[in-house]
Design brief:
GO terms for molecular function: hexosyltransferase activity. The chain is an alpha/beta fold and 300 residues long. It is 43% helix and 18% strand. The chain is globular and about 60 Å long.
Length: 300
């Protein structure tokens, strides 16, 4: 049986420089202790110097896929974990001061009763607070589309091991959602700690996929399959539109489009397919178009 309390699992692909900084800061963290924390890197068949970078850190358990498996690598990274509590850790993350100590403390506090524990970044109406939930709909109310966040993915290994189809939603880019939903439904109390646990290093030209297709099509199709109530589903659609879609429209088409490499093909078709009958969609779209026109006029 593993003596480790926590497994930090890092899926990565072609980000060796950022990964190097992430690992360095992790091991230099005064709250990090090899006696009860293990670090795992699951390399999704990188073509850069990822393996060479990881070799600098002798205690890291390094695994490399024979081919790039896309989002399936999230499941693969967790499958190597041996700790009691296992956590995904993006290759762009760094714990804020004192955050790792707090997380370890909470894990120890609930180690015996195995309460479901999630560590979410501050989000919407939840800032530096603790919420106890007892249903999927309550989970959505407090976490919304941030249930997709890699920063929040963590649970007891025994609960992960018994999930039947761990890759149910991997073809839709979000294998983590199946894990989180099934754990929330396991009949035990779920506690969510909201705090800004991480700082994030944003990669140059982040992207490579269509953020609108991924969230508007894939994510909404997933929660449709979860058979939420009509009210819960419509509230989630609104939040996604108001707090996520609008933000990325402005970022990718107005303010910071040169910083990212997300695909934007068929963006309006994607949005209208899901939102054409929603009254709140059109004021948001008009506001976005006014910003875009204003930006264009100011550039002359």
């Amino acid at each position: 049986m593993s003596s480790k309390l926590l497994s930090i699992c890092i899926p990565t692909y072609n980000r060796c420089d950022i990964l190097d900084e992430t690992l360095r800061k992790l091991f230099e963290n005064p709250d990090f202790n090899n006696e009860y924390i293990e670090v795992i890197v699951s390399d999704n068949c990188s073509t850069d110097d990822t393996k060479k970078v990881v070799s600098k850190y002798s205690s890291v358990k390094y695994y490399c896929n024979e081919k790039n498996t896309s989002f399936y690598n999230l499941t693969t990274a967790l499958s190597y974990a041996t700790g009691k509590y296992i956590k995904l850790y993006n290759d762009t993350f760094n714990f804020r001061f004192g955050a790792l100590e707090k997380i370890i403390s909470k894990i120890r506090m609930h180690e015996n009763e195995k309460t479901n524990l999630f560590f979410y970044p501050n989000f919407l109406h939840n800032h530096n607070t603790t919420k106890t939930i007892d249903s999927i709909e309550s989970f959505f109310f407090h976490c919304s589309y941030n249930t997709t966040s890699t920063a929040a993915i963590g649970f007891w290994k025994k609960d992960f091991d018994v999930i039947g189809d761990k890759n149910k939603y991997a073809p839709l880019h979000f294998p983590q959602l199946e894990w989180m939903y099934r754990i929330v439904e396991n009949g035990r109390q779920t506690i969510i700690y909201f705090e800004d646990w991480f700082e994030v290093t944003v990669p140059n030209k982040k992207g490579g996929y269509n953020v609108f297709k991924t969230f508007v099509n894939d994510y909404l199709n997933i929660i449709k399959m979860e058979k939420l109530s009509f009210f819960a589903y419509e509230l989630e659609k609104y939040r996604l539109c108001r707090h996520f879609i609008y933000l990325w429209l402005v970022v990718l088409f107005v303010s910071n489009k040169d910083k990212y490499n997300f695909e934007t093909k068929n963006v309006y078709k994607i949005l209208f397919t899901k939102y054409w009958y929603e009254p709140y969609f059109y004021p948001m779209l008009i506001l976005f178009l006014l910003k875009k026109i204003s930006k264009k006029n100011n550039s002359f």
